[in-house]
Amino acid sequence: MVGNTVIPTTLTSLAELDKVSDKTLIRSLAYVDGKWVSGASQQMFAVLDPATQQEIGRLPNMDAADTRAAIEAATTAFESWRKTTAKERSLLLQKWYQLIIENREDLARIMTLEGGKAFGEITYGASFIEFFAEEAKRAYGDVIPSPLRNSRMLVTKQPVGVVGIITPYNFPNAMITRKAGAALAAGCTVVVRPAHETPFSALALCELAERAGIPKGVINMVTAESTTPEVGLELTTNAAVRKVSFTGSTAVGKLLMGQASGTMKKVSMELGGNAPFIVFEDADLDVAAEQLLACKFRNSGQTCVCANRIYVHESVYDAFVAKFTKLVSDRLKIGHGLSADVNFGPLITECGLAKVEAQLARALQSGGEVVLGGHRVEALAPGRFGPLCPIFSFSSEDEVVRRANSVEVGLAGYFFSRDVGRIFRVADELQVGMVGVNTGIISTEVAPFGGVKESGVGREGSRYGLDEYLNIKYINLAF
Ligand code: SIN
């Protein structure tokens, strides 16, 4: 819905899929216990290219019984996987990482055809496998000075067990690797339910994991249509699953967490954000405008850490809006992710577009004014391009911090200032799990990703992300 260069699409999705050089990366079955399987019901669902709405393939629509079979496979595999050494797991993860990198062109093509985006995510996703391959060897314990004579108090870390992983469509590769990389490094086995919009990218990861030598049953993948709740219900209620890791909306996160409480599973919930992006009067406006472009339009605006509410100090508001509008209109080239020169792909779902349209209607009703775009990109059927970038003005630091914190969620927040005192003050005051100061990009495998308030619990990536898949065991040894 942005107003700039539109590159018409003449591509045929299936012809583009046919250009994948290693066709064995395109799997049309689910992956359970090291086998490619169809669901018990034999029903299939279609996966569409969001830029053309053309079907690119079909996959099994699996149910609770299929999910139980995957959990059983993961439970059996856990018995031997948990006993492997950290170094053995590390070497397998390194091999998996190398294979992802070697196949990145094909993986990117598959992802673009089901997820509408360009190539950056494969390297980002692979970085989690590489990081956790290294981190597997650092799940250190502790020795506590005992208050008793002739005693040693030890703390060790053990894998939590079978993990249920439920991932969204916006990062078809990285949301799986960020969770599964940590889980496998810790010695856990996993059952993944990938998003129904983007399952081919997920299954290609299984194919590469198998080639890397990751044993059968360690990674299992259950595919299912749309909102088929049975798979998620089984993953969150089956007693053999000891942890659930979910990325998605706060509403679904609450539901899953409630279901998981029946068997007291450990949970990681990486949920929605509503990120403030604040430009103070002392900011470098060129840097702030560049960073807003990167932050707002990353992944076509479909990340939970994209800037949602842009607050610009009233004294620099007009100058900032002019700079930013020029950048958006000069830089973003809209079209099919596989067309030459395109750097801005479609929204993956129709519902995503409906949300943008509703937000726009609300903004206009409240007196907002469209500076650029504001309509469907008619030249590109189905014209599914977003996002909305609302820019408000503010007059004082206290006011903007209050407005920034006035929501129930708290994932990421960004602000731009050159005043050192203000930088520490505002970074402390923002009620979020992650803060970008003078930058709009915060995601990396080495830093803890996660939120506060209703944005969820737990952290992903970094050494903190490994802890999410480990239980602490205390051993009191008297001698
Ligand atoms: C997400 O949107 O859930 C993840 C975004 C990121 O990794 O930057």
Please give a structural write-up.
Pfam families: Aldedh. This protein starts with 12 loop residues before the first helix and ends with a strand. It folds into 2 domains: 277 residues, Aldehyde Dehydrogenase, Chain A, domain 1 (3-Layer(aba) Sandwich); 170 residues, Aldehyde Dehydrogenase, Chain A, domain 2, CATH 3.40.309. It is of the alpha/beta class and 479 residues long. Helix 4 runs antiparallel to helix 7, helix 5 packs parallel to helix 6 and helix 10 crosses helix 11. The strands form 6 sheets. It has a 6-stranded mixed β-sheet with strand order 9-8-7-10-11-19, sandwiched between helices. Succinic acid binds next to loops.
